[in-house]
Structure formats: structure tokens, C-alpha cells
Amino acid sequence: MAPTSRVLLAPITITPSKPLTPSHLKGLLWADVMFRATAQLAEVTFRYSHTTYHRTEQVVGFWEFLDRTRGDTDYGSLSEEEIGELYVGYRKEDTRPAAAALRPYEEAIERTGFVHPASTRVLELWSGHYRRLGLHDPGLLAHQPPEFGLEEVIEHLVATGMGLDHRDCGGPVYLDATPFGLPLRQIVDADGRPNYLACALRELLPLAPRYDEIVMLYDRDLDPDYQLLERVLSDRGPTVHRVPIGRTPIEGRITSARHGGWHGYTVDALLHAVGDDHPPEARLLGLRLYFIATLGPGQQQSFRHDLLRKSLARAEQLLSRAQTPPLPDRDALLAALTPHRRDHTHVDPYRLTSSLLRRGRTPPDRSLLTTVFT
Fold first, then answer.
1. Model pTM greater than 0.85?
2. Spatial contact of 93 and 128, defined as CB atoms under 8 Å apart
3. Which of 171, 250, 289, 361 matches a 20 to 30 Å C-alpha distance to 19?
4. Does an H or E element contain 185, and which?
């Protein structure tokens, strides 16, 4: 028997400072279906650590802003929207906090795993959304520090000819993949603050040699950074796959959640609108049909409640027609999943989910729906 492939699934994390929006939900559902489907065919690790990325300026800067402007606020009773409005206020500030103001937060994160009460509150609320959405929880509230420190990352890059460390002359640190036709990219500023890419390297560099395949799901606007990640990680041995996912426009516009404009379109509002008009299984399947198959990997289609309702109705039909497979459940499941792997180990969520909607196809096996989608 061939050895089981080892797959590391590493979706981009969402900053715990705002409500989840349709764009966030799309990415979460893609990752969930990929994980649950691929786990039937390989040994899969779902790595999703908020701890790793708390040191980025957009997180610790927000925490410093809250403590400076709000004092001892009790965040335990605030909603995602209320905390999100505070985040919008932070992003509107003309200046970014000084390095000295952020250093105590950075040290607390590294030393004790500190999380600001505002972000803890957001993550607690998200945990509730995950349960309602049937999502695998990879440890939203867990302390999951990266194995490499920042110095180890820089030393590795310099040693392999892919790092330029100018800190000895008061400058920044760069990831240098220019010999491969990729742009020079700063990963640590002159004050020693790492950006998102540096944090991703802290997390993924030590993990990479343990896996045969790494799959990274991310916002397509970040493709240049993920091309760099692919280049660095592939040198550690695994095959690296990038899966960019387009955002979901709201009324024809794509805007970052940092600018607000999400009122009425948060995941909480969406789940409230869906209500209890459909059985739980149909609700879970319908959401996946809409956000994966209907919206697809691009970002051309705006979010539409009417199409979501159609997907929920279609999910009820699929579940009512689903058949008990003639083969043992395990064999039927593998037969349903394998065609959607292409030349890689992981299952393509779009191909798999779209296949459920193909005209003229035989009713799906219940084992596929219950194991992967509901």
C-alpha cells in the first residue's frame, strides 16, 4: 500500500477586529470543504493560528489604539459590529502608532500569548458562528505560537541567499527572490516590526519539510506575496499550491472591511436572514452551494439574497434525492472525491461542489453530502 500523503492546509487568517462578511465567509467555506474532502484521501493538518499574526501592526496597533482611547472598556458585552466600528476608527487615524508604543504588546504576545479583550470577544463570537455554520474549528481561541522566531526566519533567508538584512545600518529586512523574477519585498521595517509575510514565514518555514503538499488559500489581492511564499517554501521540499479566492462584492463594490460598509451584510445578519426556513442540513449545504459553486473563485458577482435562497432550495432537493450508495460508504466516498483532485492531492472545492449542480447527473451519494458538506 502506498504511504498516505501529508497535506498542510494553510488558509489566510482573518484579523479578529471586525465582523465576518460575505468575503470572509466565502474563504472559510472553501477551506472547510477542502479540508473535509481532502481528509478522506490524505493526512491533513489544518493550520490556522491567530497567535502567529497578532504581532502585525494592524492587530497590535489596534490594541494600542483601544487602550489609548477607550481605557478600561468592558468588551465582553460588545457586538462584532461595535468592535468593528472601533477598528474603522483606528484605520482612519492619520498616523500609525510608534514602535515603542507597540513593543509591550509584542513582548506580551511572545512571552505569554497575550490577546487583547476586544479580540478575545471577537474570537468568541466567531466560535459561535463556526458552530452554526458547521465549520471545522482549527483552534480560534487556542494559543498556537509559531515554531520559528523572527530571528530564525531572517537567518534562514540570509543563509539561503533570499534575505537582505540591513538592520546593522538602521534599515529593514527584505525577502529577496529577484533571481527568480520576483520583486524585492520588505518583511521587517527599520523599527523591527514584522509584516504579515514575515509572520507567515515564521509559521510555515518550520512546518514545510514535514509535508508532501502545502495548500495556501488567500485573497487574490495578495497574490504577489503568496508567490514569494511559494518560492521559499518549495525549497524546503513540499509541492506548494496557491489557491487565490476573489472577494464578494456588495452591491457591485469590493471594499475592505477596515472601511466599514458591512452593516446588514455580516455573517450574523446573513444567518438571521436565512432563519429556520430550511432544515439544518439544507442550510449548511445551501450556503456551500452558493458561496463556492455559484460565486466561484472570481469576484464578478455581487452577493445576492435571492440566489442564496435558490441555493438553499436546491440543497433541500439534493438531500431529498440523495441515495444510499451501492458500494460501502468509504468506497463510494473515494469514488466521488477522486475525480476532483486533478494533478494534486487536495480536492478542489469548486470542482467538487459544482459537480453537485451539473445537469443530468445522478443523485449524489448521501455519504458525500454528510461527510463533506453538512
1. yes
2. no
3. 289
4. strand 185-188
204 is a domain residue: yes
Give me the pLDDT at residue 96, please: 83
- Cα 239 to Cα 226: distance, rounded to the nearest angstrom: 14
Q: How far apart are CA 29 and CA 299, in angstroms?
A: 15
CB 86, CB 41: distance < 8 Å: no
- Report the distance separating Cα 272 and Cα 317, nearest Å: 22
Q: At residue 107, what is the residue type? A: E
* Grid coordinates given for 25: 465567509
Q: What's the DSSP call for residue 187?
A: E
CA distance 235 to 325: 43
* Angle of CA points 48, 51, 54, to nearest 5°: 115
- Residue 368 to residue 318: CA distance in whole angstroms: 11
CA distance 154 to 175: 9
Q: Of 158, 203, 149, nearest to 166 (Cα)? A: 158
Do residues 321 and 227 both lie within one domain? no
pLDDT in tens, 28-75: 999 999 999 999 999 999 999 999 999 999 999 999 999 999 988 999
Q: Does 175 lie in the same domain as 51?
A: yes
Within this chain, do residues 167 and 292 fall inside the same structural domain, yes or no? no
